[in-house]
Specification:
Blueprint lengths: L28 H22 L6 H20 L5 H25 L5 H26 L6
Helix pairs in contact: 1-2, 1-4, 2-3, 2-4, 3-4
Length: about 140
């Protein structure tokens, strides 16, 4: 449940709130961080799938395994505030990873490459379902 607060104007006449553009160099930082996160996650998936012996393989692959399922889950939970959406998306990502691991262990086919591939496929399917749901319900804004 999301609560809305009453916004009062500040004494200097500027509107208080997140919609206001921030002055300075940090105002367009989120697209840069999203691009860097995508690059790190892609590198992690590629390092895991190629079997590289790089010391960056483990942290980048772990980042991919958390970020890939979390992105479509967060997109599906747009009604929540930022902290709740992040927490629920990370919890959902852990659940997806655990289900993949349990499934691989149950059929006696444990493989790091297979796990990364399975998480990738499940994440893409989740993203496709979210996009189709938005298209069908008409929630997406027309530009």
């Amino acid at each position: 449940m999301q609560t809305s607060r009453i916004r009062t104007p500040s004494p200097d006449g500027a509107e208080a709130g997140p919609e206001r553009a921030r002055p300075g160099a940090g105002r367009n930082l989120s697209p840069l961080l999203a691009g860097a996160a995508t690059a790190v996650a892609t590198a992690g998936a590629l390092l895991a799938l190629t079997g590289s012996a790089s010391p960056l393989r483990a942290p980048c692959t772990l980042f991919f395994l958390l970020a890939a399922p979390a992105a479509p889950i967060a997109a599906a939970l747009r009604g929540l505030d930022r902290f709740a959406r992040t927490l629920a998306a990370l919890a959902g990502a852990v659940v997806v990873n655990m289900l993949v691991a349990q499934g691989m262990l149950a059929v006696h086919r444990w493989s790091a490459r297979g796990g990364v591939a399975a998480v990738t496929v499940l994440s893409l399917l989740l993203l496709l379902l979210v996009l189709l749901g938005e298209l069908i319900s008409g929630k997406r804004t027309q530009k």
